[in-house]
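Chapter summary example.
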Amino acid sequence: MTLAGGAALASGTAVHAEEEPPPQADELVEVGSNGRCSFGAPWGGKFLCKSYVWYKLPNKHNQVFVIGLNNHVYSRWSSPGGGMSAWTELPNKEGRCYHPGQRSMDMAWADRWNFAVTCLAKDKSRWYNERYASGKWSGWRTSKY
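The structure predicted for these 145 residues follows.
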């Protein structure tokens, strides 16, 4: 599976991906010189460099969002007992995410289990996908609310 993402949010404060990767990721490793990156164990995956965001969930686990090599958004989260979820795509039938390193993946807001991830389309318009407290997603849209 190929992945990608942007900036980061921890405990309600925006933190850019270049400054602080997820605590469980040993390191952010550049794979070649073509702008493709992957996380160290146990996160793994391949995605566009400088295009991820992570969020510390209320249960103290982390969730990471990345822009994949195919410009689709993927997510993975740590689970109880130290396990990891599989990489899961957040489908966007309206378009794909681009512009790594330009806050291409980001968090629009976060309030415990309700938060929204954003990404930049090819024309640099911002897309939003809100996670409701119920665990369901709004689907990608061009307005915040």
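To summarize the output: Confidence is low (pLDDT under 50) at residues 1-20.
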